Structures are given as C-alpha cells and as structure tokens.
Amino acid sequence: MLYFKSLDISASGLSAQRLRMDLISQNIANADTTRTEKNTPYRRKLAVFEQREATPSFSHYLSESSKSRVQANGVRVSRIIEDTTPFKRVYNPGHPDADQDGYVLMPNVDIMTEMVNMISATRSYEANVAAINSTKSMAMKALEIGK
Q1: Distance CA 87, CA 73 (A)
Q2: 5 class by beta-carbon count within 10 Å (0-12 exposed, 13-18 middle, 19+ buried)
Q3: Residues 89-144 pLDDT 10s
Q4: How far is Cα of residue 48 from the mean position of the Cα atoms in its chain?
C-alpha cells in the first residue's frame, strides 16, 4: 500500500503550503500596521518547515527485512517565527505614531517579497495536487489490470 504513503506525503505538503500562504496573506494584510498589541509595528511572520519523520539510511532500503519498516516522510510546519529584520523608517510627520523627528516605524514587510513567496507557495501546492492526481491515476490503472 505504498499509494497511501505517497498520498500522505503529498497531503502533508498541501497542509504546510496552505499555512505558508495564510501567513503570507497575513503579512500582506498588515503591511501598513504601525501599532500592534505590543505597541510596535507588525513583524513579518515566517513558517519553518521540517521533515516529518526521519529518513531511513540507504542500507535499510537494500535490506529485504526492512521493507515493512519504511516510513512515509513528509513535511510539517515546526514553528512560526517573526522576522527580526529592522523596521523601515518613513518620514511622515502627520502620522499619529510619528516620533519627535517626524519618522514612523513601518512593518518589515516587503510586498514584492511576499508576492514572490506567494507564487512559490502556490506552485508547490499545485505540484502536490499533481502528485496526488498521479497517484490516484496509477492506483486506478493498477485496479484495471485485474479485470
């Protein structure tokens, strides 16, 4: 039943990329937020991915006795971190959050970077959907062999 392991790996990728897209959307939505609950500008959030399970060594794959121990790997979001790059300083003396010199600290969100990341996440999501569809197609063809 390696089909199910393949589907599990692709499903973990779909979940991780969906969360990544949610974070990117949140970053874009808060690109102009100069004050949060912490009285600081919004900090960009990033998803940190990690492999879901340890990959067995190559020698395990060669051993006949270990075929049943091959574990399905995948990806998961291990944590969500805040980007520590400095805030942008923008001169806007009329802004309510301006300092005595007229500068406002703006979030460390770059819209162009976020759009590139959104395209990357979308393409990864689409690749996982294609892998799921290919797996389903292979399983259906395998079932047709017995007819």
Answers
A1: 38
A2: middle
A3: 999 999 999 999 999 999 999 999 999 999 999 999 999 999 999 999 988 888 88
A4: 7
How many domains in the chain?
1
Distance CA 118, CA 86 (A): 22
**Is residue 27 assigned to a domain?**
yes
Give me the residue label for tokens 């995948």: 74
| Six-digit token string for 92 | 């806007």
| 39 located within any domain | no
Is position 60 within any domain?
A: yes
Sorted by sequence, the CB contacts under 8 Å of residue 129 that are 6+ apart come out as 10, 14
pLDDT digits (tens, 9 = 90+) for 29-77: 999 999 999 999 999 999 999 987 655 555 555 555 555 555 558 888 9
Smallest CA-to-CA distance from 57 within 43, 71, 44, 47 is with 71
What single letter denotes the amino acid at residue 78? Answer: S
Q: What is the residue type of 91?
A: Y
Instruction: Return the bridge partners of 45, or none.
Output: 82
